[in-house]
């Protein structure tokens, strides 16, 4: 289940940056298609993440923090894509996205249920 979760969020990050590239190059139809695919990936990320959480015998506070920060990352991706499509400024959202992404990666790789990177 850990590998499925890691694959879905890694694929979502790649598609996020591809969608931004498509928008910059003026390909709005491809941008909209990738936004829809990303929304399906959000569901898969949430499903695999909840599967991992419910497989634990005891849930510590750090796992709850990781879930909250993971939702924050998904929200920032969606808000950056939405504001980019409208032409609104996204600097503050990018700062939040980077902070949340680094935090969720640190928590994900440092907690016992996952891959030992740190």
TrEMBL record:
Its main location: membrane. It holds the Pfam family DUF1516. The chain crosses the membrane at residues 6-24, 36-55, 61-81, 93-113. It is a multi-pass membrane protein. InterPro entries: UPF0344 (IPR010899). It is found in: Cell membrane. Keywords: Cell membrane, Membrane, Transmembrane, Transmembrane helix. The keyword Iron-sulfur does not apply. The keyword Transmembrane applies. HAMAP family: UPF0344. Belongs to the UPF0344 family. This is UPF0344 protein H0185_00485. It comes from Mesobacillus maritimus. The lineage of its organism: Bacteria, Bacillati, Bacillota, Bacilli, Bacillales.
